[in-house]
Amino acid sequence: MPELRAYLDALLRDRERLAAATELDDRARTESTPSEVEIKRIRTLIRRVETDLEGLTDDEREQIKEATRTLRKTRTVSLGMPGVRAPEPDLRLDRDA
Predict the structure, then answer these.
(1) Which ranges constitute the DSSP H helices of the chain?
(2) Are 38 and 12 in contact (CB under 8 A)?
(3) 30, 36, 74, 84 — which has fewest CB within 10 A?
């Protein structure tokens, strides 16, 4: 749900920003503005999920929360810049034989 709400908020912000942008021509504004259909679809999905969640037992809601936490942990990926590992230290002792 937080991701759906954040996505809806982003669509609404983008729509307002593009409506206020005076430097865009009409075609660019129309092509870039999120459609009412998409916004309505996300709002409908949010309402449906909220309604479905209300019909669940506390145990079922807790199971969904736990599954969501597990999914979020597995989806977490660090996309930093690739690095070069430091060379492994040579642990062999130099012996004069």
Answers:
(1) 2-20, 26-32, 36-54, 58-75
(2) no
(3) 84
How large is the C-alpha radius of gyration of the chain? 25
Cβ atoms of 44 and 17 within 8 Å: the answer is no
**The pLDDT of residue 22 is above 90:** no
Through-space distance between the first and last CA atoms of the chain, rounded to whole angstroms? 70
Q: Which structure tokens are listed for 62?
A: 């807790």
- The amino acid that residue 74 corresponds to is T
Query: What is the 8-class DSSP label of residue 55?
Result: T
Q: Which two tokens stand for residue 46?
A: 């949010």
Q: What is the pLDDT of residues 57-83, one digit of tens each?
A: 999 999 988 998 888 887 766 566 666
Dihedral angle sign, alpha carbons of residues 26, 27, 31, 35: positive
